Fold:
Amino acid sequence: MSTVTGTSERTNGTPVAPSGPPVRTNTARLLRGWPVVALVALIVAPYSALPLPGLLDGPLGSAGSLQLLATCLLFGALATGYDLLLGRTGLLSFGHALYFAAGSYATNTVMLEAGLPFAVSALLGVCFGIALALVLGSVSLRVTGIGFSMVTLAFAQAGSILVSRNPGGFTGGEEGRAAPADLLPSGLVGIENTANLYWVALGYLVLTLAVVHRAVRSPTGRVWEGIKENERRVEVLGLRPYGFKLTAFVLAGALAALGGLVHLLLTGGSTPQTTTSDFTLSLLVMVVLGGSGTRWGPMIGGILYTWADHRLGDLAGSGAVAGLPAVLRVPLSQPLFLLGVVFVAVVHLLPGGLARLPSRMRSALRAPSGGASAPEEDRRS
Structure:
């Protein structure tokens, strides 16, 4: 008796048509198409009045909801770009916020001081961020390991101090600087144009995902993987890791500078909070939460972390928390405490981040029948 599914059989000499692919195969194909479905849903979100109680304060297409979603998409993209260093090349940088802030402050300063149009200022701002990443990366990458991390932290701290000191009145100090509304595109100013800002953030996310995916799949991306696994072996093969690491550093810095430009549009100004090392630590948490070195993990981590940060802040200031006993009110009124608890739980219960969860569930289901092991599934995801 034949036990092979989907192959021709003969019954009394008569061919029988194949029974078709297994249901599991069809399900897998449908699951592989989820990015397209998600993208279409995100594109049409501004036209929807769907209420999402608990997730958003208002309908999906309302200005407040779109502003929050745009911020989530922005940081999902930023975390994806940061993972080029951490998850793809094995470089732990504590200064990534510097290039994000450079894109925002440089663009804003050119508009305010030189009075140039937004398009020209944006181009100059992103170029400044790329040049800064090239210069500081060429210095930082002269050392490796914890030394590299400390050098990037030193540069980030210097940049944060420079912004707070407000030299020449260019940075606005602790108050930041508002962008000149008359020089910004009219379609990106005002609450009535929140949907346009949302689409800009979505476009930035799609662009970042495409660039990172293409870079990782390229020959240079394979060298990055080799550097992460064993840099000495890459040197033995006759390649110079320094140039490849600098490429990853500059590409990640360029994506961060572009993200700073999007953040300038979303918030209407440049803020000193984006220059601090705490900002980079938040990116690190996003990447680890979602899954470092995976295709979708950093994006998922960035989106969920940003959403939770906003929603837990609202929860902390709500009347429901204020009426609780002190033993519950004190921790629940601290959003960072709650985020820390969630992060620790994910690290311990889901090694590899949220992106590994589907593969681990498949492994658990296949384990009794001798299916693939969890490490094999992790490598495939």
Observations:
- The first helix runs from residue 23 to 32.
- Residues 1-11 have pLDDT under 50 and may be disordered.
